[in-house]
Design a protein that fits this description.
The chain has seven helices and 45 strands. It has 842 residues and is mainly β. Pfam families: CarbopepD_reg_2, DUF5686.
Length: 842
């Protein structure tokens, strides 16, 4: 069972056909002293319910703009009473605002610091005393205190292209697409923006805490501007965002940990400065500015709004520093609003996150994509009886038409109406979808992102295109061509095949598989396949029986030493699987295979059976697999799903039973295997990848069926292998392995002058394996005297790596330096090695 990490499609594949609308509504006017009628400057103007001012005036006149409809302006200035004005299209211009001076006795006494003050220690800082109260009265999500709860969630994801100019508009790529610039708008910097993508979704959330813990998030409506059948844009949008809790010590963005300014460890990362007391939705709140002590670390800057009575977080803004060290990202900004129903709990009210993405440059003026997600939480109901059927999955939920709603529904369902420019996104992309040139551009980027070229008229995908060429010792240069059926993203069945040819051995190889899913709810599936190919066995312990799986080592371009340990495999497989519970799969495989050495002169797989010498291992076995992915999120409801980025673990338990005599099988045997994989955020210190495997063969089997400790003789990175082991150097009846790999996200290198400017990130890792091998398992193989298990000592290797190598925002190269820790007296080993490869991600 291979570990499949969440994949991030290269974001720059979206760029040239997506552009930006600076969706704005404007308001302007003049501000004067109500007593003297003299113009006033230095007034903070707030739009709608936002906690940060959109503008601080430099004169008596003002003009503000927003990418959403302005329905209210709030004017605040020290020593003046707050003024609120409701905005309509009729009164949005030439607004005349009078601010009345406030009596000193009505202003709460507070120590105000507009500049960053210096304190001998943090206890002298008044903000520290406030934050201590916040930590003492740390609140939990109020949903956990009720027996049952329901609430509504409105989510809007919008992509805009930013910082465009007239030269960009004149590029040949836009020939016959000029009409999209009818939707352009000018930003404050004079640049041009155009719309990209808009997705709206309505969810109904149900939860039960007693008598059992159950939750359900039901998608009841969804509307997308074009691209419904395009995988890349939709998946990119969904993969960008994670749910966060401001009270946690670590906030998850892109599966990277950022220290929370409200976390109990905040003072180790941030400086805090008490600015003022302000009114937030009628509640008095401390306004605290925070900023990182060091700008090179992954951290935020912004404001906290803390209730002056209860010390609850009413709101917060989080904005990344200019030196943010995340691939493809130029900036992050989040606004959070909370309701606090009692002294111990909070409820989410509104979250807005903006992410600025660029493929290459970190410059502020670089052409970029602005991805904005806003979520409104409403209609909370508590302790209302919920029937069991509410939590059961139904076939209707997985229907392609389930989320289709008319315009009248959306007008009523939205908490705020769409702005004129947001409505324009739907109009523009509907026109684009009818333009052949645009569809060709979409096809190109979809092909690069998915690895398949779709022939829509035939309903097939050609590919994967990145597997066309390979090379190994037996086949020499190898060409592989494949295809699969693909009509829609939610196909309930799939047929796929490939054929390959080696120019050295002049042999044709092939593989084919068909799968059909009968039920979208429990994903009951049947499948069958067959293949004849040259494979590198022994590079995976908890492997699967999938016919279309392809091992990296059988087509490696560069390797240390010659790899002659390839096998010729004829294999047929039938399987059935079902998910009786969400993210829990039960799979049963039946496999018949024959395995022999693809290079008998250099790699001996011969063994003794009943006193006879045999070169082909015939095997028939059944495998029962239990696979749990708690917390994993998937897109699409067809037989193939695409996983969102999460920190979900993978837990696999497998039992394999070999049956002697079945289709000529040579062995009865029993095997039990376990695997656990989990990414873990370690606060501001980065992320650790933990992978543990254990297994046991209860019977004697030849090398072709044995547990081989995975080696890696290539110069490429390969997950869950041992970089300094040769193929088949160790194998074991009973084994355990542990891989620990920690990504520091530049935490250490950011302290080193000059080096920190390169924005490199450091990695440290250690790997270990222990196993035992019986004398019978050695004796059954002709060259069994060569083989052994790591039973004297735990075999280990360790190393460091550098990732994030590249330029600008394109930093996808990684280099590892590996050292072998022991068993150094063996012949033909490598004690030190360098591995390198590309890893596309944040």
């Amino acid at each position: 069972m291979s570990i499949k990490n969440s994949k991030y499609y290269p974001l720059f594949f979206l760029f040239f056909f997506v552009d930006y609308i600076n969706a704005q509504t404007t308001a302007n006017g003049k501000i004067v002293d109500a007593k003297t009628n003299k113009e006033i400057s230095g007034v903070d103007i707030f739009i709608n319910e936002k906690n940060d001012p959109a503008l601080t005036t430099a004169s008596g006149s003002f003009a503000v703009q927003s990418d959403t409809i302005i329905y209210k302006l709030r004017f605040q200035k020290k020593n003046f009473a707050q003024e609120n004005i409701n905005i309509t299209p009729e009164n949005a211009t030439n607004i005349f605002v009078k601010l009345a001076q406030e009596k000193v006795s009505n202003i709460q006494e507070v120590v105000i610091h507009n500049e960053k003050p210096k304190y001998k220690n943090k206890k002298e800082n008044p903000a520290y005393a406030i934050m201590q109260k916040v930590w003492e009265r740390k609140r939990n999500n109020g949903l956990d205190k009720f027996d049952t709860y329901t609430y509504k969630e409105y989510e809007k994801i919008q992509f805009d292209a930013n910082n465009l100019d007239s030269a960009f508009m004149k590029r040949k790529i836009f020939n016959k697409l000029e009409f999209i610039f009818d939707y352009k708008d000018s930003t404050a910097s004079g640049k041009i923006g155009l719309p990209v993508f808009l997705n709206e979704a309505i969810y109904e959330n149900y939860g039960e805490n007693k008598p059992s813990k159950r939750t359900k998030r039901l998608l009841v409506a969804q509307k997308t501007s074009g691209f419904q059948d395009n995988q890349i844009i939709t998946l990119t949008a969904k993969n960008l965002y994670r749910d966060i809790n401001i009270y946690d010590n670590t906030l998850n963005y892109f599966d990277i940990g950022f220290p929370s300014p409200v976390g109990e460890t905040g003072f180790s990362t941030y400086d805090y400065n008490l600015l003022d007391t302000v009114s937030i939705r009628g509640e008095s709140a401390f306004k605290i500015r925070y900023q990182p002590k060091r700008t090179e670390v992954l951290a935020f800057q912004g404001y906290l709004y803390i209730d002056t009575d209860s010390y609850a977080v009413l709101g917060a803004t989080l904005k990344s520093t200019q030196k943010i060290n995340v691939n493809f990202i130029n900036g992050i900004s989040t606004e959070l609003e909370y309701d606090n129903p009692d002294e111990n709990t909070f409820l989410p009210r509104k979250f807005v996150t903006e992410i600025e993405m660029t493929p290459f440059s970190k410059k502020k003026t670089a052409k970029s994509i602005l991805a904005k997600r806003s979520v409104d939480y409403s209609e909370y109901q508590f302790n209302k009886p919920l029937e069991d059927k509410v939590f059961k999955r139904t076939e209707e939920e997985y229907s392609d038409k389930f989320v289709d709603k008319d315009d009248a529904y959306w007008v009523k369902a939205r908490p705020d109406s769409l702005s004129k420019s947001e409505q324009g996104i739907y109009d523009m992309l509907d026109k684009l979808n009818q333009t052949p040139k645009f569809n060709r551009i979409v096809k190109l980027y979809e092909t690069l992102g998915s690895g398949y070229y779709n022939v829509k008229k035939l309903g097939i995908d050609l590919g994967p295109i990145f597997s066309i060429y390979g090379k190994n010792e037996i086949e020499g240069d190898r060409i592989r061509l494949g295809a699969r059926t693909y009509f829609t993203r939610n196909d309930p069945w799939r047929v796929q095949f490939y054929t390959a040819y080696g120019f050295k051995d002049q042999q044709v190889k092939y593989g084919a598989e068909a799968r059909f899913m009968f039920n979208r709810v429990n994903r009951f599936t049947l499948g069958a396949g067959t293949r004849r190919d040259i494979l590198q066995l022994g590079v995976q312990l908890t492997n699967d029986d999938g016919i279309m799986a392809r091992t990296f080592a059988s087509s490696t371009l560069f390797a240390r030493g010659e790899n002659a340990s390839l096998s010729s495999v004829n294999q047929s497989n039938v399987f059935t699987s079902i998910e009786p519970w969400k993210n829990f799969q039960i799979r049963l495989d039946g496999t018949m295979q024959s395995i022999k050495s693809a290079n008998p002169e250099g790699f001996n797989l011969m063994y003794y059976k009943d006193g006879n010498l045999r070169q082909t291992t015939n095997d028939s076995h059944f495998t029962l697999s239990l696979i749990a992915r708690p917390g994993a999120k998937f897109s699409q409801t067809g037989i193939d799903r695409y996983e969102h980025g999460t920190l979900a673990p993978t837990i696999v338990l497998k039992y394999t039973r070999g049956v002697e005599g079945l289709f000529g099988s040579d062995f009865n045997y029993n095997k039990l295997q376990f695997m656990f994989y989990k990414p873990v955020l370690i606060g501001s210190w980065g992320k650790t990848l933990v992978s543990f495997e254990a297994g046991k063969n209860f019977d004697t089997v030849p090398l072709a069926l044995q547990n081989v400790i995975p080696g890696n003789q290539s110069y490429s990175l390969a997950q869950n292998t041992f970089a300094q082991l040769n193929y088949y150097e160790f194998f074991a009846d009973t084994y355990t392995t542990l891989h620990l790999e920690h990504h520091f996200n530049g935490k250490i290198l950011s302290y080193i002058p000059l080096i920190k400017k390169l924005k490199l990130r450091e990695i440290a890792f250690i790997r270990g394996a222990y196993g035992t091998l019986s004398d019978a398992s050695k004796a059954i193989n002709v060259e069994g005297f060569k083989y052994s298990a790591p039973s004297e000592h735990i075999y280990y290797e360790y190393g460091v790596g550098i990732e994030n190598i590249g330029f600008g925002n394109l930093r996808i190269f990684r280099v590892d330096f590996n050292w072998r820790g022991n068993y150094l007296d063996r012949p033909d080993i490598s004690t030190f090695g360098i591995k390198a490869g590309f890893q596309v991600g944040f």
